[in-house]
């Protein structure tokens, strides 16, 4: 495992016990995906949830699949997920990487993945792996945040400090489309969405990102502690975004996609 992935796994493992209390945006995204799934033919025989987290969405897949496998990179997340499923034992949990799926070809009818593949080093690699484990005609229901997500925070950090990256860079919609085209999937549905969360102050937002495990910055991050002066500068820059209700917005731009592996 690369150093970057180890850091991501550690951040999410630490976040796991409190993740559900902070994952408001993720829960709203998940509800939209489940509504889309409702409109699909089913239930299918075998489904895989990639980046299952605490398994909140995994367990909601049960009306749609007879046999569910859930995979995550973070052992801490899997521990919470297993505990959430301990009474009904609806899913089989596996520790693994979306970019190196430990499954036989053609094993699944449906792959589901919400707000996870943005953590991969190369989206085409993850999509190609998913393509491989799906049977011909199998479907992938996917959501992921894209460019301009947390732009208010990124711009505020940029005003405070140019040298380092404090917020992850997300792929543009055009880049995601190229990755999808390269992976051999047919695109059945493509929805562009925006969810704006509001906070009283910047600390509430950064605390929530930390609780989610989503504060881990993948490249060009400052490895030393950021000075108080710089943090203060960032927080005053963020004030520029305060709205008429006196709240600070944090924007999540994301895609929901339904993809299909061709029949032959
Ligand atoms: C933002 S959480 C989303 C969890 C859940 N899908 C939800 O919507 O609540 C992202 C999850 O992806 C996992 N993850 C990150 N990179 C991964 C990878 N390369 N392979 C598998 N899981 C990964 C993290 O450990 C974390 O549990």
Write up what this structure looks like.
- With 264 residues, the protein is of the alpha/beta class.
- It has a single domain (3-260), classed as 3-Layer(aba) Sandwich (Rossmann fold).
- It is 38% helix and 25% strand.
- The protein has a seven-stranded mixed β-sheet with strand order 3-2-1-4-5-7-6, with helices on both faces.
- Helix 5 (75-84) links the parallel strand 2 and strand 3.
- The protein starts with a helix and ends with a strand.
- It binds S-adenosylmethionine.
- Residues 8, 12, 23, 26, 30, 50-53, 56-57, 71-74, 77, 97-99, 114-116, 119-120, 214 line the site of S-adenosylmethionine.
- S-adenosylmethionine is lined by residues 8, 12, 23, 26, 30, 50-53, 56-57, 71-74, 77, 97-99, 114-116, 119-120, 214.
């Amino acid at each position: 495992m690369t150093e970057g992935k180890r850091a991501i796994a550690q951040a999410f493992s630490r976040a796991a016990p409190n993740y559900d209390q902070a994952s408001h945006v993720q829960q709203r995204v998940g509800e939209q995906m489940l509504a889309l799934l409702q409109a699909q033919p089913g239930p299918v025989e075998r489904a895989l949830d990639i980046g299952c987290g605490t398994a909140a969405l995994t367990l909601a897949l049960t009306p749609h699949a007879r046999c569910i496998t859930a995979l995550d990179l973070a052992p801490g997340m899997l521990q919470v997920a297993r505990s959430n499923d301990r009474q009904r034992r609806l899913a089989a949990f596996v520790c693994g990487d979306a970019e190196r799926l430990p499954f036989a070809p053609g094993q699944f009818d449906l792959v589901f993945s919400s707000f996870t593949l943005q953590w991969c080093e190369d989206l085409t690699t993850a999509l190609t792996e998913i393509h491989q484990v799906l049977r011909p005609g199998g479907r992938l229901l996917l959501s992921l945040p894209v460019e301009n997500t947390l732009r208010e925070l990124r711009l505020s950090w940029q005003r405070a400090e140019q040298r380092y990256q404090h917020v992850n860079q997300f792929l543009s919609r055009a880049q995601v489309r190229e990755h999808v085209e390269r992976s051999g999937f047919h695109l059945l549905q493509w929805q562009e969405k925006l969810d704006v969360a509001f906070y009283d102050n910047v600390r509430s937002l950064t605390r929530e990102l930390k609780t989610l495990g989503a504060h881990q910055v993948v490249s060009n991050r400052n490895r030393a502690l950021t000075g108080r002066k710089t943090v203060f500068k960032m927080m005053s820059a963020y004030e520029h975004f305060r709205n008429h209700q006196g709240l600070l917005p944090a924007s999540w731009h994301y895609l929901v996609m339904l993809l299909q592996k061709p029949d032959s």
